[in-house]
């Protein structure tokens, strides 16, 4: 079953999440060398995934006219990025108000 759709973002979102990933990798590398426990806290965690309509990405395709009209791209959100970072955090705290998004988040 695909994750619940949580559509948001644009080029700036991708840039922001790339920077977040790089920061988290550097942070965990430094913190893992110390004797501290450290946590990742995401107050608006969402589902852990994000989607972009294919229409928004057609300019990146070589042959956009052959793309399916209702296709979706599933991309990592900040919560999923944090879970992929190595070394790992000591603890993860994800906060999500929307119950259906929270249920998807728990699957990660």
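Q: What amino acid sequence fits the structure above?
A:
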């Amino acid at each position: 079953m695909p994750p619940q759709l949580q559509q948001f973002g644009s080029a700036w979102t991708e840039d922001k999440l790339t920077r977040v990933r790089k920061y988290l990798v550097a942070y965990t590398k430094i913190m893992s060398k110390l004797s501290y426990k450290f946590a990742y806290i995401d107050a608006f965690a969402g589902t852990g995934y994000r989607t972009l309509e294919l229409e928004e990405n057609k300019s990146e395709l070589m042959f956009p006219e052959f793309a399916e009209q209702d296709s979706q791209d599933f991309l990592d959100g900040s919560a999923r990025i944090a879970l992929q970072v190595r070394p790992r955090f000591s603890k993860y705290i994800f906060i999500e108000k929307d119950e259906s998004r929270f249920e998807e988040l728990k699957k990660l």
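Q: And what stands out in the fold?
A: Residues 54-58 have pLDDT under 50 and may be disordered.
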